[in-house]
Amino acid sequence: MEHTEILTRYTANFVDEIAESGVTDVVISPGSRSTPLALLFTEHPSIKEWIIIDERSAAFFALGLAKQTKRAVALVCTSGTAAANYFPAIVEAHYSRVPLVIITADRPHELRDVGAPQAIEQIKLYGDYVKWFHEMAIPEATPEMLSYVRNKASRAVYMAHEGNGGPVHLNFPVREPLMPDFSLDKIWEPLGTGATKSRSNFEFDGTKRLSYLQLKELVKNLRNKEKGLIVCGPQIEDDFAEAVTSLAAEWGVPILADPLSQVRGGLHPKANIIEGYDAFLRNKDVRDMLKADFIIRFGAMPVSKAYLFYLKENKQALQFVVENNTGYREPTGNPTEYLFANPIELCDDLLAEAGDLKFDKEWLETWQDMNRVAKRHLTSGTEEEITEGEAVRALLETTPDESTVYAANSMPIRDVDSFMMTTEKHIEVLANRGANGIDGLLSSGMGAASTGKPVTIVAGDLSFYHDMNGLLSAKHYNLNVTILLINNNGGGIFSFLPQANNNKHFEALFGTPLDIDFRNSVFMYGGKYAWAKTMDDLTSLLETSYTSEGLHVIEVRTDRTENAEWHRSIWQAIEEEILERWS
């Protein structure tokens, strides 16, 4: 068998097994060495290819797509620095537990470390940020090697999903010539008598669950407590909201629900949900009034820094962190019990075993009353000029049911936390909170929009600028995306931090004003641009964008200093009313 047939059959069997293992989407960045992979992925009837030229943008696009679909997405690039450009998104996928199958083409071994072009060290390029790495064998087409290549493909997809999801990396060395031969018969089929497609079966991977004795011990620890708290941090489990709110209602305990918990929106009961906690937990005296006996947290740590302070000051409370599998996500260093169990089943088991537990009714009512005070201040009043909080509030009120909001880090996600009230609309809120970086926002949102679900990206001017290459996919694939661009001409989050007191260097090092007219970049990528000067403008423009096709960028311009003062005035009003009523 000559080289081209060997290359074609080996690569085709790999691609086919990736598809057989459940992958439906591949994101490809063009290059030469990756030619056989790119062409065979594109030709496979069960896989949809997305061609994103910039590898950094491509990786974040895949990240957003995987978050939205909750299944692994494959990535293909050529050798050299192309693979290095995947790194930021791989770091984010690692920390946010998103399954990706990274496939990097490479020079064959004889062209490594000899000065060949586009040859860098790609062995374990991503270090510990991938769950599994494998250097693929040089292509062969014997029945044994086709079995081998299928095994590695199916194992890669399994490893990306197994336990806590995450990225895996396969390095694929290939020799020239690189063009596959599509005239060959049955290229997607294995060779040899009795050969089958799927070489490994990972469909019987069960979920973790506490044993009966472990559950009894947990309930015993809670039985004599009076003031309990359930905290829901970022997570994506389907049906979790119904399970956790049912448990909270039965026990009579408050739920602190992060916007990324997917608990604030939907048709489940919401009487126990406290969404304004970030506003009133900023005050030390208020935090001291709300000392808990126990805290059960589901998902990662919430966005709220005020909650972090609260947790640090509650070292006396029994703290339980629920993890689907393994993991250590507890940055305060407080004594913590880890419950490794499926969160939905744990809620159901606790209802069955400890549904009779009742906690301090006045404790729940205090949280609910304080939440009502916070919500009244957070949802009332309008300014002469649009504030950042009002812009986010208008967006959340206008965005349609069954849609996704993808929020930038720094101020946008914090404003979503502050101004997203409970709603019957099912609004999925996503953000890249694994590593909390500014990069890749637009590309991630485009990846989420590629599923056809309405997506609104909430971007600051810095996150927008940092990923303008991501707009190309909206033009290329005519994605329906609305971007709310909150332009405060720099890094607004720093106006809330001690760095703001350094007048000499603040603007250059932290404020970092861009002074860019973004409308030209939007037009360059075929999008529609509008500047919303009033709240009526903003609401109308948002509504129009949701009933129109293509990319819509709606810009709101604010002042960083005024924005910080506006936020602080609301927080102060909330604190003063609560302290007056409860002191």
What would your notes on this structure say?
- Belongs to the TPP enzyme family. MenD subfamily.
- One of its GO terms (biological process) is menaquinone biosynthetic process.
- It catalyses: isochorismate + 2-oxoglutarate + H(+) = 5-enolpyruvoyl-6-hydroxy-2-succinyl-cyclohex-3-ene-1-carboxylate + CO2.
- Homodimer.
- The structure is a single chain.
- It contains 22 helices and 18 strands.
- The protein has 583 residues and is α/β, with parallel strands linked by helices.
- It folds into three domains: 171 residues, 3-Layer(aba) Sandwich (Rossmann fold); 159 residues, 3-Layer(aba) Sandwich (Rossmann fold); 191 residues, Thiamin diphosphate (ThDP)-binding fold, Pyr/PP domains (Rossmann fold), CATH 3.40.50.
- It has a six-stranded parallel sheet, with helices on both faces. A six-stranded parallel sheet has the order 9-8-7-10-11-12, sandwiched between helices. It has a six-stranded parallel sheet with strand order 14-13-15-16-18-17, with helices on both faces.
- Helix 1 crosses helix 2, helix 8 runs parallel beside helix 12 and helix 14 packs across helix 15.
- The chain is globular and about 85 Å long.
- The N and C termini lie far apart (85 Å).
